[in-house]
């Protein structure tokens, strides 16, 4: 019990770091579109939105919280390039600006601004400026993040979401709606891919260093104890995320008869909240979105500054914090739609690579961290996922597209999955044969 009491706050911190605006927007959208197939759809979404991030936390914990060290076991150059791409993607280029832009769009613009004022760039700039000032303050001393987030922001965030969940169960908006689009024929795979949009697998790979620093600041420096605490924290965070996803998906699946169908999860949760709580709903939604975005931004900013400070030790952690904050502020003011449009190709390219690397690393002791067993599946995965990203940008290679179209699950956007497993099996057999002849 003492272990649980002492480390529950670390679990709350990790949960808060994961829970960004995307995690609140996508479940109600899934609920509306899944309709009567909500149970099987939630199973697919929980695998990529909860299960894989938990595995990511455990994997990074075993490597000491260092994604660079983990990915360098494939190849030193790959380690630097891949880790930098992940950190910048989940940091100042895409994810951090998105947290501020979503805070403005859903937490400020939608409920509080008139149409004429919303068209001005000034409210966005003022909102993002305040948002990043608070973010910078909270991230400036990473050893205090546990106290500031785990003890203050997370309980408030949980209370707001709990209020939405309880109200939606006690007074449901309406009956379960009908399935839409891809959820009519393949709800599991459709929701499995939708789980990518949370970006939580990428976040899991970078949050490890934040947790390790926080534990070091509390005087817990022994690796074995750190791994135990991080795994416990990962389970707490996973349970919290599952509760949020199921609750918000339930709101979505019962909302159709009252608010109609919408393609924007933000609109769904905004309209549903108004229907559940009336005028007070706008304030509840705004507080939820802003708190969720703020806690995620703090964790991502701290993780990025820590990584690049380690990569370039002559440049201080505080300097990177300031630079990444200013860069995020600038990109956030391009607006949410622009951020999503230019981040999607990168996300499609790197997400499958991250998943395969994470799963390989989890079982690396079985193949002695062989570069071959790491490398072949990653090359095969990258050959498919990078093309998916390029195709999203409007560039299509007909011959290559014809070849890939014959892959299992290609139409479900996970054509990389089976080839990655096959490549892993081939590489593992070659590794075993080499070891057998080497030891003969």
From TrEMBL:
Transmembrane segment boundaries: 7-26, 38-62, 74-96, 122-140, 152-173, 193-215, 227-251, 283-303, 315-336, 342-364, 371-390, 410-430
Pfam family, one: Branch_AA_trans
Keyword tags: Amino-acid transport, Cell membrane, Membrane, Transmembrane, Transmembrane helix, Transport
Source organism superkingdom: Bacteria
Membrane topology: Multi-pass membrane protein
CC per GO annotation: plasma membrane
GO biological process assignments: isoleucine transport; L-leucine transport
GO molecular function: L-isoleucine transmembrane transporter activity; L-leucine transmembrane transporter activity; L-valine transmembrane transporter activity
Chief place of localization: membrane
Keyword 4Fe-4S: no
InterPro entries: Brnchd-chn_aa_trnsp_Livcs
Compartments where found: Cell membrane
Matches recorded under NCBIfam families: livcs
Family designation: Belongs to the branched chain amino acid transporter family.
Function: Component of the transport system for branched-chain amino acids.
Protein name, per record: Branched-chain amino acid transport system carrier protein
Organism: Metasolibacillus meyeri
